[in-house]
Every structure is written in C-alpha cells, then in structure tokens.
Amino acid sequence: MKVAKGKGLGNSTTNPEVDAFLSRAKTWQDELNELRTILLDCHLTEGLKWGKPCYAFEGHNIVVLQPFKEYCAVLFFKGALLKDPRGILVKTGENTQVGRQIRFTDVREIVKWKTALKAYVHEAVEAEKGGLKVTLKKNLELPGEFKNRLEELPNLKAAFDALTPGRQRAYSFYFSAPKQSKTRETRIDKCVPQILAGKGFLERV
C-alpha cells in the first residue's frame, strides 16, 4: 500500500486518511492519538485498512487500532507468537488462534504501558523478519448449508480451498453463528462473490 505523505509524528510519517479518521472519532480520541504516537515512534508505516488505523512493517501488517464501546485496543495480527510475560494480551474470541489485543480505557494506562507496548511491537516486527507463522488447528467445522453449496458449485469449492486458513475460519464462524438455517443460507449467498474473488468476508470485492 502506498502511504500518502503527511506531517511528521514520532519517527515516522502520518497518513492523511488516519488524520481524518481520528478527527471524526467520537470516542477514545485522546487514547487513539496517544497509541498512534507510540506506534509511529516504532518506525511502522501508517495506513487505513478495514476502516481502522493500521500499522505495517515492510508491507506486513503488525497492528491495527480498534475503538470499541467499552475500550480501545491495539490488535496484533500475529499476537499468538508473542511471549506476553506481562499477561496483557487478550484473545479476541473463544475460537481466535492468531490475533491478540491489548486493551485500554484511558490515556494514563497507555502511558504506563508505553515501554511494554513498544517491546511487544518490536517482538512482532522481529517475528515478521524471521518469517514466523502461527501453527493453526486444521479442523474446520463447516455448517451443512455451506457444505451443500460447495458440492453444488465446484468453482466455489476451489475458491474457498484457495483461501488462507484464517479467512476460511472467519467464514466458517460467520456462517455457523445464526441459529436459523435460512439465516445461514442468506449469509452464504451474500458472501459467495467475495469468496470467488479470494476475499475475506470483511473485505470488499
């Protein structure tokens, strides 16, 4: 991704899209700005992905900022690789295998954990440099409605099999969540074009 030139902050260059995102933020604005300063000071490249400030090293996503109702978070894309001696990394869901969050509720917390956060970022960057990958559980439970669709559409099966394990799991969880079969089928129908395009269900075609 080509990052537009912006004003300097920390030791890296800001992205105007992130400037706009933060200026519009209705919650956690101070916290997000403080986190941004820390991440840019780690020499990461700033951009906007999935509608959120994202920070990369040599084209590899390292962390993304996530504002939620109860807290704001730094999500490490490969957080499962980090040693976490301080016990501050949190799984984003019961079935999460790769990503990990560090959650904050005020600027003072962020300042307190500034040095630790930089250490985690450094470790994540070193993991990328070393080409480390998270060993994933291969058992993937697909809902019956989707299994049937894959049998009916060989091109869909080929496209789904070509997706990364993470994207496959995301679709599986998304399709399996509804209790009603009709709702599961509706979700599947809406996502078929994205799967055929090789995209995750949160990515635009």
Overall description:
The protein is an alpha+beta fold and 205 residues long. The chain has two domains: 8-129, Alpha-Beta Complex (Aspartate Aminotransferase, domain 1); 144-196, no CATH class. It has eight helices and eight strands; from the N terminus they run E-E-H-H-E-E-E-E-E-E-H-H-H-H-H-H. It has helices spanning 16-24, 29-40, 107-112, 114-129, 144-152, 154-161, 165-176, 181-196, and strands at residues 8-9, 12-13, 45-49, 52-57, 60-67, 72-76, 90-91, 100-104. The protein has a six-stranded antiparallel β-sheet. A two-stranded antiparallel sheet has the order 1-2. A hairpin with a 4-residue loop joins strand 5 (60-67) and strand 6 (72-76). Helix 5 (144-152) crosses helix 6 (154-161). The chain is elongated. The two termini are 17 Å apart.
Average pLDDT number: 89
What is the count of helical runs? 8
User: DSSP strand (E) fraction?
Assistant: 15-25%
Weakly predicted, low-confidence segments: 1-6
Q: Rg from C-alpha positions? A: 19 Å
Q: Give the termini distance in whole angstroms.
A: 17 Å
User: How is the biggest beta sheet arranged?
Assistant: 6 strands, antiparallel
Question: How many strands?
Answer: 8
Classified by CATH, the class of the largest domain is Alpha Beta
Overall 3D geometry? elongated
